[in-house]
Hints:
CATH architecture of the largest domain: 3-Layer(aba) Sandwich
Strand content: 25-35%
Structural class: alpha/beta
Amino acid sequence: xxxxxxxxxxxxxxxxxxxxxxxxxxxxxxxxxxxxxxxxxxxxxxxxxxxxxxxxxxxxxxxxxxxxxxxxxxxxxxxxxxxxxxxxxxxxxxxxxxxxxxxxxxxxxxxxxxxxxxxxxxxxxxxxxxxxxxxxxxxxxxxxxxxxxxxxxxxxxxxxxxxxxxxxxxxxxxxxxxxxxxxxxxxxxxxxxxxxxxxxxxxxxxxxxxxxxxxxxxxxxxxxxxxxxxxxxxxxxxxxxxxxxxxxxxxxxxxxxxxxxxxx
Length: 264
């Protein structure tokens, strides 16, 4: 296998399967018209999976008082002794808890899901937010993502967290789709909507978020920078929502909105 590296070309293969003599002969042919420097090295065998696991940290989400509230970890990490334990098998989907936006979403939602709730997770990625909601006892959780691979990953992660029965009964469900899929849900169906996606998607889907929220429901938005907060809060307010809190972490932001009661 060949890989460019700066002004060099790195060639590597399995010892015993590489024709070293042929390689050296080719280098000599190249030297006839170009200057070539050659280095050879035999790399010791290594358990790359073990090294990757060792470099992959778990994520500890803290409560406002500093207590450990939730641990997001891979299957090879040990279970925590306190707090919510969430297992996420990292694949190609977004949302392992390492990114500031995912961390803020988990921290903001934990106080809101300690009761039976109906939850929508838009752009569910790995399903981490939906899994947190389900583990906290939410009565119904729906996750939607535009990528079919993310839906598969979310389903796998739900099973890793012992939520197979919830998947079987439909109280936890993942499906592939975008904002247009929200048209199929009735008004006021959800009392918590989670969306950790691009700011432009938030702006486009804000009317649906507002419609789907029940009175006194909560909306958590992230996936954008602190500088985008003013524009998104203006959009939220324009669609009948109120801004309850804004969280910032490492330059990223999370907005907690609410839908006021229409009762007189």
